[in-house]
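Bench log. Compound arrived from synthesis this morning; before running ITC I wanted a structural hypothesis for how flavin mononucleotide sits in the protein. Inputs:
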Amino acid sequence: MTRVGDLAVVRTKNVSPFELCVDVLCHDRPSYERLLAALSVAVVARLYGVAEADCELSSSAPALAIKFTIPREVDAGGVGDRDIFGAAQAVPLQELPLQEPPRTESSPMEPQATPINLFEYQERARELLPKHEYDFIAQGATDEITVRRARTVFDSILLRQRVLRDIATRDLSTTVLGRRVECPIMICPAGFHTRVTPDGELATARAAHAMGTVIVLSNSSSHTLEDIGAATPGGKWFQHYLYRDRDLTLTMAKRAADAGYDAVCITLDFPPVPPKRERSIRNRYSQEPSPNYAGLGVPRYDYGLGHDAMRGVGELIDHSATWDDLHWFTEHAGLPVVVKGILAGEDGALAAESGVRGIVVSAHGGRQLDTTVTSIEALPEVVSAVAGRAEVFLDSGIRRGTDVFKALALGARAVLFGRPLFWGLAVGGEAGLRDVIQILRDELELTMALCGHSTTATIGPDSLYLSSPLVPSLSGTAHPTSVSGALRF
Ligand SMILES: Cc1cc2nc3c(=O)[nH]c(=O)nc-3n(C[C@H](O)[C@H](O)[C@H](O)COP(=O)(O)O)c2cc1C
């Protein structure tokens, strides 16, 4: 990543002789509006030696992507990423002829327009981000049915409101793998936070620490796991994989231990052929490898069709691994092991037998395989099979405090959220992500209070209706309130 004053030039794409794109992230919308035109013209002038009038700038503002179209008569052969970064860095921002931004009542950064729920955060982020980045984060696999189903299922589970149960004080804290967290809401592993904010995972780690919760750092982080480890004393797990090279598997765990992480999280649902994410295929999305893999020759990840597409870290993963390999890892990792990507009771039981300390029931946000069961539907079966031998967590589709409550009621110790971390960071950096966590936490507190719970420990399946007690046409026939009953929709 290359910084340009208040901006960060994150990457360039689609460099052809007459067209280049530079993604620029600003801290706020007014900065963007003031700097966009001036910076882009200056970069082009520096690169190609053309005058301001010769450059046609197109940008779908407020998206933070600048696309230059270079006049045909200019010889642009041989210009590459490095040249563009160099030119962007060389622009003296203080000398740019900045225009005051037009102020309108509907400016999205105005205080009165602050999002008040996670859906509004997503909408605001959609306005701010380049389309290819927004699509990469928001999408699911193929028809995105599992993504939508998660919302339908969470919305269809009904709460049993209770009253007069002394809810004058409420304690949302719990422990995860022995560490106290202020609320049962953690941050999912997700690659490259610099795609939405210049500070990337540094901002995420600070937000998690400030809110008293845990960040699970992705192996595909934009800063090294050591840099994030040193950023805060807060709770951190490091997510990686079972690699073909067993030494690398252990080396990653040792690096995490040395850098102060509490646990390693092994993601098990990384397929041997690319997941079919059609928005990114259309956008020809491509991703650089993380600095965590420096020196290992990991290629870029191209979200193209076909088996010859480069698959980044996927090239290193052992797709022949079995439960014996996981068992080996839990014995040698030197840190508690959590596995992620479990959707079946049998796999939950096998994971527990392999010695893991935690299990994340996860449909990977519907990003890997479409039309799987959603994680909230799979949760009761996994909780039952694990039978207390490991802590069970849930991700995929958490957007409301009521979702958190329902997952806890069905046996999760805590939940994690993925996409909303990007929406918070995109809208307001570290403060935006803190606000996202605060919103979820406050909504959970309200739900707990009106369902008669002053601590998370007492929340159980008797707080839910898994189908309507009265309206069969909406949600089934009987009114099972036990987790052993199937969800009916
Ligand atoms: C942009 C993005 C990148 C992700 N990268 C990873 C990753 O590197 N490792 C991983 O185990 N899961 C990754 N995930 C999946 C999340 O950890 C999580 O399972 C999912 O986002 C949860 O669903 P939600 O987004 O609906 O909350 C990623 C998700 C997103 C949206």
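What the model suggests: The chain is about 35% helix and 15% strand. The chain has a mean pLDDT of 84.
ITC booked for Thursday regardless.
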